Amino acid sequence: MTQSHRMNNSLRPSRLAVVAATLLSGCLWYFTIDIRGDFGFLLWIAPLPILWVSLQNSARVSFFTAFFAYLIGRTNWVPFLSLLMPVLPITILTLMPALAFGLYVCINRWIVLKSRSPWSVLAFPALVSAIEFVLFSVSRDGTAGSLAYSQANYVTLIQIASVTGIWGIVFTASLFPAALVGLWHFRKSPRHQLLIATFSTVLIGGVIVFGLLRSTEETPYTQIPVGITAVAEDLYQDNVPATLMKQRIVAQYDQQIGALANQGAAYVLFPEKIFHIRETLKDSLLGAFKKIAAQHHVTVIGGIAVRKESSRLNLVEFISPDGTVQEYQKRFHVQGFEGDFEPGKTIGFLHGTPCEAGMAICKDMDFPVWLRGYHNVELLFVPAWDFVADGWLHSRMAILRGVENGYTIVRAGRQGRLTVSDYRGVVVAEANAEQGAATSLLAKAPVYHVKTVYSAWGDWFGWLCVATVIGFVAFAKFAKVE
């Protein structure tokens, strides 16, 4: 008997039900992947209507319902992407995830119907996690766009990233709707339902229990008073001579850094690329900030862009009160915007600091493999420059690197968020600079390093998901059809 014949046509949902399920899932996806992170919890149910439809319809219907549902969701990003790129890249970035979701659903449908195994409910979460892992591992934009970041507000859940990386977050959230649909699909087999309920509860419950324990554990630590500051964007005026504009910006940073130092800050971080200067003027600018550091007895950290004859450098400077300067060059750059920047090659470890510390810059934080290189770091300084609307999202992407590797992150997002977060992803302090106003915060940054499985073993879980998908495909392919 063929796969289509095994479906009971009388139980298939009507066309109206299929359309309703597509629209419902599309609306859920629209809010799930919103870059402000307000409705991330909807990830746990957004695929459910489509998974339900797919197990009762043809592969063609399953693909197109999944495609259109996710396409509706992806339109959420169009206004934001329109600020950054032309129509063609926007179209590609909108269509490709929808095509991928259609692929997930069709492969999952085939595995479930062909294998007829209760264990097949693991196929969908393994597919989503495996394909994300493979695609983002080769992407020039790193892990930007992963569904995991929609869950960044849920401290209990994101602790699993310390073991599995972000792929464990995706797997857990995707298992929930797959299990619910599996319970419905195998409704005539109480034995299958019991097995599905048992192992799904154990897996999801285990992640939650682990998250509760890790997020509430008492870990000894010291504290360092840190300040983060960004000047008002209206200081960058086109109608003002460049020299005068830079003098005003330096003077404003002097004032804001001094205010934070007077409140007790030992380190003050400012954002990425506060200036674009010629290489011949670099020493002069560093001299101005050395003077600020010495005058206020504070270490100053922040980013500048240096123009060379045929390229540019994106740098962060670590300037001690005694005038010592340590420098890090950004490794990963935003495609299009930073195409002429030379990539750095060296991890940004700091020397002579009272704790194990390091530096990274903005886009670097989208690449988990690179951040694993900051072994034993306790405190990471990250100047950044966001795109206003993505202030929450991009700051949380960075925060998850701290969860994966067990360290505190101090991040200054120009036109974004100023954040201090601990190794659990808890935001210790935050200020919003998205609207371009002068913004500062003072916080006590916890200093510690917590060893993690992910830091030691890397993307083992991503490869496990790939192997799981291969295993399911092989099992379904050779399963006997009755």
Task: Give an overview in words.
Helix content is 48%, strand content 15%. By secondary structure, it is α/β, with parallel strands linked by helices. The radius of gyration is 25 Å and the shape is elongated. The relative contact order is 0.12.
Domain unit count: 2
Largest sheet: 7 strands, mixed
Mean of residue pLDDT values = 94
Radius of gyration: 25 Å
Shape: elongated
Uncertain segments: 1-10
Secondary-structure map with pairings?
Layout (H helix, E strand, L loop, with lengths): L2 H4 L8 H18 L15 H7 L4 H16 L3 H4 L5 H29 L7 H16 L16 H4 L2 H4 L1 H20 L4 H27 L5 E9 L11 H21 L4 E3 L6 E3 L3 H15 L2 E9 L4 E8 L5 E5 L27 E3 L8 H5 L6 E7 L5 H15 L2 E7 L2 E5 L5 E6 L6 E9 L5 H5 L2 H19 L4
Parallel strand pairs: 1-2, 2-4, 3-4, 7-8, 8-9
Antiparallel strand pairs: 1-12, 4-5, 5-6, 9-10, 10-11
Helix pairs in contact: 2-3, 2-4, 3-4, 4-6, 6-7, 6-17, 7-10, 7-17, 10-11, 12-13
